[in-house]
Design a protein that fits this description.
Layout lengths: L1 E5 L5 E7 L11 E3 L9 E4 L8 E7 L11 E5 L10 E3 L3 E4 L15 E5 L2 E3 L8 E7 L4 E4 L2 E4 L7 E2 L4 E5 L7 E10 L6 E9 L2 E9 L14 E6 L7 E3 L9 E4 L10 E6 L3 E2 L5 E10 L6 E7 L5 E3 L8 E4 L4 E2 L12 E2 L3 E12 L7 E2 L1 E7 L7 E13 L9 E3 L4 E4 L4 E4 L1 E3 L5 E7 L2 E2 L6 E2 L5 E4 L8 E9 L2 E4 L3 E6 L12 E3 L15 E3 L6 H7 L5 H14 L22 H8 L5
Parallel strand pairs: 35-44
Antiparallel strand pairs: 1-4, 1-6, 2-3, 2-5, 7-10, 8-9, 9-15, 10-14, 11-13, 11-16, 12-15, 16-17, 18-33, 19-22, 20-21, 21-33, 22-32, 23-31, 24-30, 24-33, 25-26, 25-32, 27-30, 28-29, 34-37, 36-41, 38-39, 38-42, 40-41, 42-43, 42-44, 45-46
Length: about 600
């Protein structure tokens, strides 16, 4: 219902009620009023569900002499006119959370901020049971408190929500545009889905390039700066000047041409190539000018990677002036080379600052900057002075703890066959951490002697020479990862001498004797001993070929870390069960 009260001769009170009105309790069934208790004129709305009755109360106040007032009361919607609500999100208001930021006014990686998105009902009917949820697919951003409910919102009214919280993770870019998707629901309407953008990043504090045109002898320009003129009646080239400078010795200056006739021309001041950082940048310079308004003018252009010069505000560049931007459109009526374009024109003194903001689209690009003058006709004293050029990059600085934080694993040295362990400690504030251990940069998986490859603690048991290398761990939180320092694993060979239990008999095979030995085989009976040389003294007599072979092998075997492979009767010794196989993985020795 829409209630309008007009033409009252005095103060009145009016309100709407769904159902009945109880004079003893103004709050019972209350639905709405004009926002002020006593009025002479006003309009308000309230919703009446289908099938319900309603009451509109008009109460006279301070009736003079007991005579009632005259007024007009109009009620619209009695015939079932649909009053449609339309709740929509407003612009986001972002503020750092002091406990989790450096409170410098910028939301930077590792910091937390509150984001308030008001909801406005721009429809013709009240919105009831309003709720909003917020999500984002922007990487390295975590949202908390991302839903809110509202009281009923009357047509045309707004409600501020409880702020949601937003956190940039450590690996977020310094300059980030976060796309927040808002979904608003209310009774009787389809969900309203919208996008609200939030821009983050630090201040422009990191110097990239600067030029004050000092340190040269006028009219020479600094090294790397050039000037170019074209067209009829071209003015003098840009040059260093000692006049009208700003806190410096010189400015760059171009003046009127020597040709006194009407003319069209351009005159460019071109910087050396500047390597842009990956972060957003801001160019500032001081200028004073004296152009014939709209007929003469100046513009700022850049060339990316040796491409054509393009105006800094061109959509392909994306520059936006934050101060001292273009103030005119240069006339195209008389053939000015920059006619039809926005630019600086007219007279401007003293030196004032112009600052275009450059988004981080061209990181690493080589970008010369050109101040271009376009002149159309003869003017008393057209000129343009430039001074104090600085290019600053956006820099993020924060004292907040970056996430996820880790303690690094410790290098380990262990004997072959032992149990080696590595551990990291991850600290998370927003959610669970995941772990991935690596050997020489290659992800590990559980199996064999590896366990805990996806946990905070890695175990290698038993160790072998194949496990030697550098281990690190990738710790991830909400898609943002950090890698621990590497820790080396050293596996020491098993130097424990084997304990050999000799067999009752040793068989000497003639084919293994020294060259020229007789093709015969002898038997020797040994006693219990740990070395083969003892077998020789304890065994029976053997021929020269066998003695030569045994002596040769004895000298080698007594210094070996393990006996030869088992089941080889010609080696004369069978190793103790369970030791030979493990030792082969530790020292890499071979039979022979």
């Amino acid at each position: 219902m829409t209630v309008s009260l007009t033409n009252a001769t005095g103060a009145l009170f009016t309100a709407g009620y769904v159902g009945t009105y109880n004079p003893a309790s103004f709050a019972t069934n209350y639905a709405g009023d004009p926002g002020s208790s006593f009025i002479g004129t006003g309009t308000y709305q309230f919703d009446v569900p289908a099938g319900q009755t309603f009451t509109v109360v008009v109460h006279e106040v301070n009736v003079a002499g007991g005579v009632g007032q005259n007024y007009t009361l109009e009620i619209d919607g009695l015939c079932g006119t649909t009053l449609a609500p339309s709740p929509t999100p407003g612009n986001a208001v972002v503020a750092e959370v002091p406990a989790n930021s450096d409170a410098d006014g910028f939301v930077e990686p590792c910091e937390e901020a509150t984001v308030s998105i008001p909801v406005t009902n721009s429809g013709t009917g009240g919105a009831t049971n309003v709720a909003m949820t917020v999500t984002t697919v922007t990487p390295n951003v975590v949202l908390t408190n991302a839903s809110a409910t509202y009281p009923n919102i009357a047509a045309g009214a707004s409600r501020p929500p409880a702020p949601l919280r937003l956190r940039l993770l450590r690996c977020a870019s310094c300059s980030t545009t976060i796309a927040l998707t808002t979904t608003i629901t209310a009774d009787g309407i389809a969900p309203v889905v919208s996008t609200v953008n939030v821009t983050t990043g630090g201040g422009f504090t990191a110097p990239v390039f600067a030029e004050a045109f000092d340190g040269v002898t006028a009219p020479a320009l600094p090294a790397g700066w050039t000037t170019a003129s074209a067209g009829a009646g071209a003015p003098p080239a840009w040059a260093a000047s000692t006049q009208q400078r700003h806190c410096s010795e010189r400015t760059a200056f171009t003046g009127r041409p020597t040709n006194t006739a009407d003319y069209t021309s351009t005159n460019d001041l071109i910087s050396p190539a500047i390597i842009l950082p990956a972060a957003a940048t801001q160019l500032s310079f001081r200028q004073t000018r004296n152009f014939e308004s709209t007929f003469d003018g100046g513009v700022l252009e850049i060339s990316v990677a040796s491409g054509p010069y393009v105006d800094v505000t061109n959509p392909s560049i994306g520059g936006v002036f934050t101060a001292g931007g273009y103030n005119a459109t240069i006339s195209a009526a008389w053939g000015n080379p920059i006619g039809g374009r926005p630019g600086w024109s007219g007279a401007r003194r003293p030196l004032t600052t112009s600052s275009p903001f450059q988004p981080p689209w061209a990181g690493g690009a080589s970008v010369p900057v050109a101040c271009r003058v376009g002149r159309l006709r003869r003017h008393a004293n057209p000129n343009w002075r430039i001074d104090g050029i600085t290019l600053l990059a956006q820099a993020c600085s924060t004292t907040a703890a970056c996430l996820p934080a880790t303690t690094d694993p410790v290098p380990t040295s262990i004997n072959c066959g032992g149990n080696a362990t590595f551990s990291v400690t991850g600290t998370a504030a927003l959610g669970p951490l995941s772990y991935q251990w690596r050997l020489a940069g290659n992800p590990l998986v559980d199996g064999g002697n590896i366990s805990g490859a996806a946990t905070a603690s890695l175990s290698i048991n038993p160790t072998t020479v194949a496990d030697v290398g550098t281990y690190d761990c990738v710790v991830t939180e909400a898609g943002c990862s950090t890698t621990s320092a590497g820790a080396a694993l050293t596996v020491n060979p098993d130097v424990t001498p084997p304990v050999v239990t000799p067999p009752a008999n040793i068989t000497i095979v003639a084919s293994e004797c020294v060259a020229g030995g007789p093709p015969s085989s002898q038997q020797a009976t040994s006693g219990t001993s740990a070395t083969l040389s003892t077998f020789l003294s304890a065994g029976t007599a053997i021929d020269d070929c066998g003695a030569s072979m045994l002596a040769r092998r004895s000298a080698a075997w007594t210094s070996r870390l393990r006996p030869p492979s088992p089941l080889r009767s010609d080696h004369g010794v069978v190793p103790r069960a369970g030791r030979g196989a493990a030792r082969r993985h530790c020292d890499g020795d071979r039979d022979g």
